[in-house]
Amino acid sequence: RLLPYFFRGKVVQGFGRGGKLLNCPTANLDSTAVEALPKDFPNGVYAGFARVDDGQIHKMVMSIGMNPQFKNEIKTIEVHILHEFPKDFYNSMIEAIALIYLRPMNSFNSMDELISAIEEDKRTAQFQLDDPKMRKWTDSELFSKI
Ligand code: ADP
Ligand code: MG
Question: Could you state one GO biological process linked to this protein (predicted)?
């Protein structure tokens, strides 16, 4: 298996859809992080942990792929951190571990269905990452080696 998968990347500007349209801001990572993915890494939605710069480690949900709902032409890695940040953090570094595969990236029949799926992903991530077995992955020593 390819999980857990450790990665890091710089937060770049995306299409500005996550926050406004989907009530779910996603930190889009630079193309270097995307190119570093193993070729056979499946597109989809994952849960894990992440931190911004040298900040605290938080739970996250992320997607890897082409955002079929929006017919993007390039693959992106987008990380939604399950934490309220006081401000945007473009140009920061994100270090993260993808631990759990949640679902493939689908195209939905409506924006509402996509939003419901994302809300469900967040709940599932919150719940599954609370499992005591996951705690070892929140060690900042591990993160400092990424
Ligand atoms: P973009 O298309 O530029 O990625 P988004 O609407 O997806 O725009 O918003 C993403 C930005 O929101 C991130 O780059 C980050 O600076 C900010 N942000 C604020 N809170 C969060 C969070 N909890 N998780 C991810 N990004 C967040
Ligand atoms: Mg985004």
Answer: FMN biosynthetic process
What is the residue with the minimal CA distance to atom 22 of ligand 1? 81
Ligand 1 midpoint to CA 79 (Å): 8
- DSSP E strand boundaries for the chain: 5-12, 27-29, 44-52, 58-65, 76-81, 93-103
> Whole-model pTM?
0.95
Which candidate, 33, 25, 121, 135, places its Cα nearest to that of 77?
33
- Tell the residue number behind the tokens 């792929």, with chain if given: 65
- Class of the 5-115 domain? mainly beta
Residues with CB under 6 Å of ligand 1 are: 11, 13-20, 25-28, 80-81, 83, 85, 88-90
